[in-house]
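User: I'm writing a tutorial on reading structure tokens. Could you give me a worked example: one chain, its sequence, then its tokens, then a sentence or two explaining what the tokens reveal?
Assistant: Sure. Here is the example chain.
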Amino acid sequence: MEFPPDRPWAKLSPRHAPSTWHPLTDHCHDVAAVFQALLSLPTIRHRLATLAGRETLPEGWAARLTVLAFLHDFGKANRRFQERRGGHIEEAVPLVLTDLCVDAGLDALDAWASGPEESIRMLGTILAHHGQVPELSESCAERWLKAWAAGDDYQPLAVVAGLVDEARRSWPEAFAAGVEPLPSGAPFWHQVLGLLQLADWLGSDDAADAFPFSEAGGPDRRGFASERARALLRRVGFDVAPFRASPTTPDFSAVSPYRPSEIQRAVGEAPGPIVVMESETGSGKTEAALYRFARLFMAGRVDGLYLALPTRVAASQMVSRVQQAVERMFPDPAARPVVVRALPGDAGADGVGLRRLPGFEVEWNDNPDEAERRRRWAAEGPKRFLAAPIAVGTIDQALLGAVRVRHAQMRSASLSRSLLVVDEVHASDVYMTQLLRNLLAQHLGGGGEALLLSATLGAEARTGL
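And here are its predicted structure tokens:
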């Protein structure tokens, strides 16, 4: 739509000298559609249910989480943001901690949590969708009260109340009586926030094949966004159903022309969820890992593979080996997942390199068409690496999902769907080993699968891991 906006906006283009704008409600539908599409993926849904201590995720919970995703940007309704004078994260805190939540209609969500403190944490979680939790304090709330002041020209609290009403119309089951409160465990909300961060990244993509800015007289945004979200997850490879459409025989021949050794077969067929393979160098541990991945993938127990090595050199040398196995595993190029070289500064996909450009843009060496570029989406930024269906990189990329850094939740949620293979575990020092234990506890807590490879691990380390 042409600038200036005639109702609350969420995005402008170009940012500093805008000529077009995207409505707040429509952007909220874009992100909610991606989040809902993520929840429709069986592996993601199972991981979230496991973290909640359930066999399956209740439909009422799924609807409520989708509404929370829809409301993630309610802070953009504040007066400062709409006047292009401020942000929307800290500015939203008054609606979480003060009585303004009633006028904004957010008190309708209080019953979704098990108590007042959990309700605050719930709203605070969705405000962390940019990768960092805001300061949830009385002083912060007081600092931004004026951003919500009503005037003859604009009533920001009424805008938020309108978003809540739109959510009620779109997902009435979320507001139905009888749905039990959402879980209160931190691991559950860590995963929810990671999925929301991923949904916000994808839902903010305004390319023509994703979520372009709305146009006057355009289609109903909710239906449009829902269709686009499902298609986009398939294009970027997060929805792996197309790769399973042409089934691969999950035996050792799928990854190697040679007969498996006894230990390779044992690794591939072990029950899991965590397996340690200790074998000498040159015994085919990588092929054993790929064989295990093939079996778990075709059984629907994992949707991806992250092969973590201790150094960039080792990871770089491993990529072509994995690429050859993937080509054997998925003989149809049209139904083959991308293999990402997950090395910041030397990233690539399927053997093709890229160059970083200003403004978060990248240039691929082979100048691919838009469909191929979409397929390589996960390779275009380090925080996306773990969202790839198959990636080879260093252990630190996985560990960044288990330490307190920006977007750790998105890394963790993306990795949760994959078989985590940690090669050369014996190379870790005491500090790295403890971080690895934390990562494994987090990964396995959500029902994930892991394989640890080593030539000289030792009994004490093996027992600990």
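What the tokens reveal: Residues 93 and 136 are 6 Å apart (CA to CA). The mean pLDDT is 94.
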